[in-house]
Amino acid sequence: MKKNFLSGLMIAALMISCTKSTSKTETVENPDGSVTTTTTVSESGLGVDTAKINGVKEKTESRINAAGEKIDYAAEDAKNKIDATADKAKANLQKAGQDIKTETDKVGKDVKDAAAKGAGKVEDGAKKIKEDLRR
Question: What is the pLDDT of residues 52-86, one digit of tens each?
């Protein structure tokens, strides 16, 4: 029984080790300037078809890269929108500050004018009282 089991293991090991594999590497330049490298490995014999596994792996990597590019694009777009909103808010705040300054200057002039008029009236009243006291 042991001999049959060991013989089976030896035959299986021999069959697995006797697989022939070939690999082919292709490099393609995409229209956007990036470079895609494709490696195709094929095996003949009793083994796993690594060509299919590598194909699935490359498809998955390209999909992950495409998703990453979409995320980068969305992040850049969001950043641009936030920057534009911040610039608009800054401009609005500067305008509001200028409006407040202008209105404050107007109020200050009005207060000075009112104080001057009041002071003039007080002086006129003081003169009248002084004249009344002299009489």
Answer: 777 788 888 888 888 889 999 999 999 999 999 99
Return d(Cα 71, Cα 107) in angstroms, integer: 53
The gap between the terminal CA atoms of the chain, to the nearest Å, is: 150
CA 67 to chain centre: 15
User: What does pTM read for this prediction?
Assistant: 0.41
Amino acid identity, position 22: T
CA geometry: angle at 64 spanning 60 and 68, to 5°?
170
Report d(CA 42, CA 21) in Å as an integer: 5
Query: What one-character DSSP code corresponds to residue 19?
Result: -
Q: Which residue has the tokens 């002039």?
A: 109
Supply 54's token pair: 């590598």
The span from the CA of 92 to the CA of 98, in Å, is 10
